[in-house]
Structures are given as C-alpha cells and as structure tokens.
Amino acid sequence: MGMQQILLILLSVIIVGVAVAVGMQMFATQRAGAELQAITADLTAYASQVLAWLATPAHMGGGAADIIITDAASIATWIGWAANPNTTDNAAYTLATAVAGTCTITANNDAASKISIPEAATALSGCTLEI
C-alpha cells in the first residue's frame, strides 16, 4: 500500500508540473499576441493621422494633397509627436519619408518588451507601416 501511494503522489506531481508549464506557455503566447495587436493599432492610428495631414490645406499646416512628402519632422509635429522617434508603452515609433512620395512609420519594441514579435509590414494608402 505504501508503494502505491508514493507512485500516485509522483504521478500527481508530474501532471501538475506539466499543467503549469503549459499554462505559462499559453500566457506568453497570449501576451505576445496582445502586444502585436496594440502596436498594429498604434501604427494604424498614426497612419490615419498622416493621411489627415496630407488632406489638410497648406494654409492650415497640412500637406495640401501633395503626394511628394519631404519633411518628416513637420509631419511628426503635426500628428502630435514631441520627438521623432516617438516612444509609448508599446514601442518606439519612427516616421521617415522617402523620395517616392511615401512615408514609413516603423515600430521597434526591443526596449519596451522582452517578447520577440515577428516582423510584419502593412500598407495603408501610401503610408507603409513596419513592425
């Protein structure tokens, strides 16, 4: 009888250990997914603000529908960034412009998180978003 009890205790310890390991893995996966969604939401909001800048007349400080975007600093100021790159709880965002009339918003979360987020890119009406 004593040997059966020891084996049952050993089996229950193994089952609980496996359950805890699986639970920790599920939590880490959920956290990485939530962080990726938060960064994507931030990028989409910033891209819509850049598009609003582009649609705003020049006498109001906007881009006057001029697709040749040349000044990243004025766009960053217009959308409310104190500095370029702009750092939030989710990531550090950098706004850059290219000669082809596009602007690129890049998110880098290395400093804000220990979770590795796979690289992804999304295009939104001439504004390239990169994670």
Feature tags:
single chain; 131 residues; alpha+beta; 5-stranded mixed β-sheet; 2 helices; 5 strands; 47% helix
Explain this structure.
The protein has 131 residues and is an alpha+beta fold. The protein has one domain (2-130). 47% of the residues lie in helices and 17% in strands. The protein contains two helices and five strands. The chain has helices at residues 2-55, 72-78, and strands at residues 86-87, 92-97, 103-108, 121-124, 127-130. The longest helix has 54 residues, at 2-55.
Average per-residue pLDDT, rounded, comes to: 75
**Alpha-beta content class:** alpha+beta
- By DSSP (H or I, 4+ residues per run), the number of helices equals 2
Strand order of the largest sheet: 1-2-3-5-4
Count of separate structural domains: 1
Question: Which consecutive residue ranges, at least 5 long each, have pLDDT under 50?
Answer: 114-126
Question: How many strand units?
Answer: 5
**What would you call the shape?**
rod-shaped
Largest sheet: 5 strands, mixed
Could you outline the blueprint of secondary structure elements for this entry?
Layout: H1 2-55, H2 72-78, E1 86-87, E2 92-97, E3 103-108, E4 121-124, E5 127-130
Parallel strand pairs: 3-5
Antiparallel strand pairs: 1-2, 2-3, 4-5
Describe this structure in a few short sentences.
By secondary structure, the protein is of the alpha+beta class. Helices cover 47% and strands 17% of the residues. The termini are far apart.
